[in-house]
Amino acid sequence: MIKDPKMLGGEPDPIDVHLGKKLRDFRTRLGWTLTNLAERAEVSHQQIHKYEGGQAKISASMLYNFSLIFSTTFNAFFEGYTPKKTDLNPSAQNDTISLKAREKINLLLVEDSSADEFLIRKILETCPYDFEIYCIHSGDEAIHYFKKYPGTTSFTKPDIVLLDLNLPKVNGFSVLRAIKQDRNIQDIPVLVLTNSLSKKDMVMAYKNFASGYISKSFDSNTFRRNLQTALTYWIDAVILPESSV
């Protein structure tokens, strides 16, 4: 068990204090007692008290559990938190991960089928995120698009790429390899969307560092659910790389 930082002669970590206040806010909003929340989280009410006081660190898995309990997002606990620059040396300031939720997600869709593009756009409209969507309809156009980065200021680096494999002229594997071989853009998560049921295609996608392989199921509801789940993971559960890095 993590001991009270004050007992060790130090002050609580500001991020632990912030998360504790957020946890208390969510709990009191629902009118729950410490015991009510403890029972749902399967910990002691004393542990909840320590969490809320910033006296114990909340693990990533426990924070995710709290987000499920309160029907909110992982990032909601970090809203309003900004590390104090006075506590950081210049090099540390440049190396600090931003915990703020993205106001806008730049999403590149590489898809040649107008029907699939329409379906994907409709699914994206149901997601609780503000997407800036740019669609490219062929593999060679996608490669040309990425070659412009970072040569022009008008180019916006995508936060996430949704990539179809069956593209005209240049297939999706070639686009994927081009992205992952370019040091300027290889950090972008690429989610492969495909009708292919080939194990060889799936293995090839992951060997070329795809961040996910999603089948365009014949059941549109299944496809919608799978795509929403993947996007929630990349936007809420993990921290996306920043364009300035």
TrEMBL record:
Pfam families xref list: HTH_31 (PF13560), Response_reg (PF00072)
Response regulatory domain boundaries: 106-231
Modification 4-aspartylphosphate, positions: D164
Keyword Phosphoprotein: yes
Gene Ontology molecular function terms on file: DNA binding
GO BP: phosphorelay signal transduction system
Domain HTH cro/C1-type residues, every copy: 23-77
Superkingdom per UniProt: Bacteria
Record's keyword terms, sorted: Phosphoprotein
Protein name: Response regulator rcp1
Species: Caedimonas varicaedens
